[in-house]
User: Fold these one by one.
Assistant:
Number 1:
Amino acid sequence: MLTSGEKIYKLAEQLFPICRSITGDGVRETLRQIKERLPSLRIHEVPTGTRCFDWTVPHEWNIRDAWVVDPDGRKIIDFQISNLHVVGYSTPVNAEMDLEELEQHLYSLPDQPNAIPYVTSYYKERWGFCLTHEQRQPLKPGAYQVMIDSELKNGSLTYGEYILPGQTDREVFLSTYVCHPSMGNNELSGPCVTTFLAEWLAGLAERQYSYRIVFIPETIGSITYLSRNYEEMKRCVIAGFNITCVGDDRTYSYLPSRAETTLADRVALHVLRNVHPGFQRYEYLERGSDERQYCSPGIDLPVASIMRSKFGCYPEYHTSLDDLSLISPEGLYGAYSVLLKCLQCIEADFVPRATVCCEPQLGKRGLYPTLSSKDSAMAVRTMMNLLAYADGQCTLLEIADKIGRPMWELVPIAKRLCAESLMKNVG
Amino acid sequence: MLTSGEKIYKLAEQLFPICRSITGDGVRETLRQIKERLPSLRIHEVPTGTRCFDWTVPHEWNIRDAWVVDPDGRKIIDFQISNLHVVGYSTPVNAEMDLEELEQHLYSLPDQPNAIPYVTSYYKERWGFCLTHEQRQPLKPGAYQVMIDSELKNGSLTYGEYILPGQTDREVFLSTYVCHPSMGNNELSGPCVTTFLAEWLAGLAERQYSYRIVFIPETIGSITYLSRNYEEMKRCVIAGFNITCVGDDRTYSYLPSRAETTLADRVALHVLRNVHPGFQRYEYLERGSDERQYCSPGIDLPVASIMRSKFGCYPEYHTSLDDLSLISPEGLYGAYSVLLKCLQCIEADFVPRATVCCEPQLGKRGLYPTLSSKDSAMAVRTMMNLLAYADGQCTLLEIADKIGRPMWELVPIAKRLCAESLMKNVG
Amino acid sequence: MLTSGEKIYKLAEQLFPICRSITGDGVRETLRQIKERLPSLRIHEVPTGTRCFDWTVPHEWNIRDAWVVDPDGRKIIDFQISNLHVVGYSTPVNAEMDLEELEQHLYSLPDQPNAIPYVTSYYKERWGFCLTHEQRQPLKPGAYQVMIDSELKNGSLTYGEYILPGQTDREVFLSTYVCHPSMGNNELSGPCVTTFLAEWLAGLAERQYSYRIVFIPETIGSITYLSRNYEEMKRCVIAGFNITCVGDDRTYSYLPSRAETTLADRVALHVLRNVHPGFQRYEYLERGSDERQYCSPGIDLPVASIMRSKFGCYPEYHTSLDDLSLISPEGLYGAYSVLLKCLQCIEADFVPRATVCCEPQLGKRGLYPTLSSKDSAMAVRTMMNLLAYADGQCTLLEIADKIGRPMWELVPIAKRLCAESLMKNVG
């Protein structure tokens, strides 16, 4: 019997080998496997050339194989070993060239000599190979055979959309991306954690809010999705999370929405402060993922990010070192449970108002110790504090922050007070 | 000739022996003695069973005597020695029982072995005795005679109300409670200090505001009073203070209203910062007296608390150690004078506006040194600062905070500027 | 070829010897020499007795000579050596008197024995001499000859006004004063720096805003000027600076407007934080120059002050030690360039709004590196940050503060984005 964390990790292992990019069969295969868990996932194809705001859906890219053979006939770079070896969106090539010419197509990291860097060139036609600096150093002059069996042609951009209706059409938005080849924290952690959040949401007996969950390629995917849906989203989305870098177990990170104080931000901070008070807090200036689109002027969605180690802030970022060993069942589950708590807080939030003036007489309802002594006054403190701030002006979440208790401690108390008709929802 | 502090202390000595509770003759006798100083104090009786919001006025409780006699025939607990020995609202009992049964009715404090705890059971019928742990320890098995000559029956809840009309019907509210038996800081200090504040107010030649001063039992008394008066109070009260724990001389304490920034809060902070800057600042979350009712949702009165050692925050609290030796003339007078300064600030506050554009020429009015030199610029600084901020947008109190001077330093200057027609009240 | 700082210093040297006061020929001569550089400077005369708000234009004062001769026949105080020797606005006197009587008319500084203090008596008729304490100490009893050849009579108050029209009638206001006799930092630095700012503004090919620049006597001059112009100024002035104490090179100082958050304040803080982050920050409570009038209730202009060593805060203030050696080309130029940057920021400010939803595709416009790698994401950070906050809700200046870059770094980027039609001014 696997733990939840192990189940998420297992999905990451399963999806890891697929060579994803912003378009192509790698995305389709990834979505197909996710759809096995989320049968109503709807897969959309947007044709090459489709105008999306300032952008155009690019050619679709697919790749079958790629290698470099050195003057001694040894295959020194091999796409079959790591799909990171090829610059993303490389044009096809099949040629012999000397080292000097080849060098202009090689990418390595002198400071991280054992890491293959992750490099892409979506919008300018290029080809290239990425390799470790340790691989590159010993290369000697001579004739190299270079082959990239790729294809750039009209096709489509593929994304998945998972809609869960709730009691109202106001919705919570989750976004993650499926365009990174074989890397772990950034990025298989996002789609895997999101898949399990979607499963949990699908299993709820009732949902206060509707949910819109998208599995998209980064940047061009979110822009494409927004260009088709932003008006409805601006009307409906009350909170959203961009789910990325949720797999390692080194830290927790928070990056605000541009507006900084949306419901998504307040929930994220409430959960992190109560569960992982040592979390790292970033500024919107340190953004770098799809919040750039969701929070852009004119879009202005309330989308915040909760991460483990943030993109750009850990040494293995965008290299082959960000592999399955960097993420862990514990790391994935930690992010999953924080995000789950956020969703639970949003679902449980309401605007409570005490129904009677002055404190109610809790004693006659069995809610208060009947013998008053030096210590007993503290016993029902939380219940009284909740009532004291239930003035119909602030939400349960805001009260939780004000009285310094986690929201999940207040929810059952609030339920009991509502059941006793001492409190009601005036939201 | 007694000092003011000694006079307040003497009243505390006089009222100390009376056995008060939330109802009964102890409250009546206390109010009768206060009425000797405040002849127009009006005493109200509210019958048992009267509905007050979520509460009902309970039976009236009176007690004549109570004791426990040990197997050796010695009276080991005696109500005549301390009225704290009997649990408040104890039902009558007259029985013989063994130690084991008696133990279930005894209350003592192992951590404070020489203190009789103060225990009550207003809303569940019980009887019990409180004793020091030192008294309790040597008790040996055997037959004990137990007697409580008390009475719980239909009667009424008694409170006192003192109304002083002013130039407007906007009013300042003072509340204190008269339900505690023989204890000093919490609580004879409150009614004693409040009596002297009321005397001072009654002696004023004119009052800008009306004053509503109540002497009530805690909790049920404030709820009862509010249920009869809250609509008028919500319309009229501009600031209020709950006066409790104002007798010892260890510290000053401030507890805000729920809204935190009412006139009462701003005045309290202004006075304490200027007179006792080392005061303790509490949060509304640490409340515990009648501010719980006055600031409750739907009531929302601007009531703050200024205390010496706050309830629950000093070791003698709610025990027999909180006696007349804990409070002092200096302690009582310190609280009295801070509260008096608050009332004086409220009375003197207005919205000043400079009547001329630019700085006025103070020199021609004899308000400015005529010889300008290196130092003279500072001499009329406070007057100029007052004028500089007298823009008709903020009150004298707000200006005092802004320019960093106590309000009582600004009041005579403001009077002079008004007399010179350089300033006027636009409030 | 002189540097800008040397040119400003040279003007200070030229104006230094003139004996200025709040009225009289010294002001006229100073303005005449400034008019040589600013030909369209308009010189106004306001007659003695003119009512200006609470004030009246005083008699005009002129002085030709003054001295004290000691019992030995030596001229021990001589106006020709320093015009600070005579109390400003001294009535004429020509008499013999003993030391005791003379002493009542002498002003010196025991703590600064080598400094002549600067003393005036504008609104009470007096005469007096200022001298160093070293000069005063050896005076011995005997008959002293005392002569002040001055004149107090109906005349006028003189000020200069320099108006530069811009594209709108919204204007930036600069004020400096020309009433101090021979002193350097306070005050020849102000008119000299202001003259060069005016020259720079006059040379601009186009100005977004109009400019109103006044050279006035302090206090009575600003009050007089406001009484004639405040309604128009309240309608038009968007930001202003009181220019005083801008000549030494010890520090930079900022004193806010009374409102504290006007455009003038925000620009001043932006420039100082980015260029001289160690600047001294004062409160409006520490004001002392014409901001007292410009920010007074009813006038309420957005006028802040940027200074080098602030009036009243350096030891030489208002003494003969504040001479040409205290100021320097570097000191004057430092203040000049900070004020110039403020004017440039105001001129360049606008309300940018991104024209496309989501991030624009910078690559296709040559604004973005086409090869995405680990470092390239940071390369266009500032441009992206500017676009990310260009929501039509805040000015370029506010965005500069938000993204932590100096405004002058954003201006060319904003221009390029506007040229690419990716941004427009919606202000």
Note: The longest strand of chain A covers residues 143-153.
Number 2:
Amino acid sequence: MSVASQMLDTYPKDLGGVDREKLRACIEACYECAQACTACADACLSEDQVAELTKCIRTNLDCADQCETTGKVLSRHTGYDANLTRAVLQACVQACKACADECDAHASEHGHCHVCAEACRRCERACQDLIDSL
Amino acid sequence: MSVASQMLDTYPKDLGGVDREKLRACIEACYECAQACTACADACLSEDQVAELTKCIRTNLDCADQCETTGKVLSRHTGYDANLTRAVLQACVQACKACADECDAHASEHGHCHVCAEACRRCERACQDLIDSL
Amino acid sequence: MSVASQMLDTYPKDLGGVDREKLRACIEACYECAQACTACADACLSEDQVAELTKCIRTNLDCADQCETTGKVLSRHTGYDANLTRAVLQACVQACKACADECDAHASEHGHCHVCAEACRRCERACQDLIDSL
Amino acid sequence: MSVASQMLDTYPKDLGGVDREKLRACIEACYECAQACTACADACLSEDQVAELTKCIRTNLDCADQCETTGKVLSRHTGYDANLTRAVLQACVQACKACADECDAHASEHGHCHVCAEACRRCERACQDLIDSL
């Protein structure tokens, strides 16, 4: 069982009406995507064609930042605020979509963009699933 | 002239149609609010009535995280994506509003909540002003 | 294979003399520990005895922040700087040790502190192993 | 009076033996440097010679991350841990020094690297001053 799952199990109060499984999946997807985007930005920096990848690097950095924030907000349950959670998730959907689209455009040439695009799509779906269940 | 302002002045390409003054104000408000919320969460932790401030602490932490992310996204201009910028700003407006409301409820008792609520309101307005100008 | 591992495999240049397996383990431990500490701070906030857990919450927050930074620094390989990597890892060892010690003191009463202390110990060891191999 | 200064003034307990003025200066320098490094990484991305600036971008990103973490750790006073504070400050000194050196090498060609190098030097000195006073 993952640490994120164990942390949900040991939270001392009720998690509210949230879908625990969708929440766990979304937390894990956010942290995974944050790491992938950070690494993809750096891998793009080390490509010989870095000059053609500057928009990809920038989108990677934005997506890493928003995924980190979303992963942290979702890891907190005290004083839950549905409007705040929804707004943060929507920003994350947008960031993941933008980054997945950008990485997909280079996925056939750069393996890191392929791996990163998949992580972004998983995170986008996990955020959307969680929004739909709120 | 602030460092954020100098960094805007030395950006090597065109900033696009963005309102430079609103952008600068918003970047500075995000970093200021992120610091204030981090400090307010900690100040609440040190209050004797911490048990009554747990929702405030949680909202402070969420707001600090979203403001940091927004401040970073706004500090980047390469490959600008209006949809992503707008979604991140909207999440920040929501986080600042939630935190300002929460801190305002304790502002008469706790000086740090008063200072933090004002920083959140400034950041909320700066983000909304920037959204309106996009 | 984890996404962090796939990102290392698709990095386009040489990773230098680094021990790839220790690096992967350390990146994953940093992100896992960052999430656990964020969740543990929040779980402590929701305990009835929150007033006795304020130092634990503060140490959780510091450890989460330093683990995030360390996880990001280790996810970058372009223009590697051994002195910077070592200093960041040493700060992470210190943060993880402080947080593990603090959480261990409450581990028998609070399941989240038990899970978090273990994540901190794993991360402390992974950082120390990587330092020793540099 | 800055918001960081107001937050220190409204902290409800004793700040311990810390030099309040050095602490305030260091908190402000960390946030300022984090912003400058984030913006400098992006400005480098938009330079025609981006291929020659990849190490600079990477160091900017590391420095931004470590400065953010240091600024947050210093904004907390509850349950102060001198060893943790010192280790985080030392990592920040190292990150600022590396980034200032890297940016200085391009300061005559790129105005953003000049502004960023100065922000890094100020932050390096503020962190070292605070370490010396602990």
Note: The helical segments of chain C are 3-9, 20-45, 54-74, 82-104, 111-133.
